[in-house]
Amino acid sequence: MTATSAPPIRTPRRSRTIARVAAVQGLFQCEQSGDTAETVIDQFERHRRVTPSASFEDGHIPDADLKLFAEVVRGVTFKQDTIDATLSDVLPEQWPISRLDPVLRALLRAATFEIGTETASRIIINEYMDVAHGFFFGDEPKMVNGILDTLARRHDAQV
């Protein structure tokens, strides 16, 4: 096979990263529409998880780790008051949680929920930094990094 006839190289999709992106989108939908976590999970699984050839860029989640997606969406909605209180403790005083962009708020809630799970904090931070870079092009990813780093250090100090 010559170099010109070789099949294109495809980067493997990261199912857990895709699940986290979908969870942020799902949490945004819960907040904006008032839908329950179960409704959003059902909608994502039925309408956005189509064939593996579907494009993530088109809003589909073909390779998402659906177990992680559902765990994050359910967990955040169930523990939202506690998560919001935790975030309020680390947000700058002039940026209360209600003032944050709704997508940024959903992202921080999802990441806060995951910090302290069996997944290492550094992995959670790296994953949500990737997610932040997918949604934001300004200073938001830096803010996400600072907040998550602070939360991870606080969590590690308690363990």
UniProtKB/TrEMBL annotation:
Keywords: RNA-binding, Transcription, Transcription antitermination, Transcription regulation
TM region positions: none
GO cellular component: cytosol
GO molecular function: RNA binding
InterPro entries: NusB-like_sf, NusB_fam, NusB_RsmB_TIM44
NusB/RsmB/TIM44 domain boundaries: 18-153
Domain of life: Bacteria
Signal peptide as annotated in the record: none
GO biological process: DNA-templated transcription termination; transcription antitermination
Biological role: Involved in transcription antitermination. Required for transcription of ribosomal RNA (rRNA) genes. Binds specifically to the boxA antiterminator sequence of the ribosomal RNA (rrn) operons.
Family listed: Belongs to the NusB family.
Protein name: Transcription antitermination protein NusB
Gene that encodes the chain: nusB
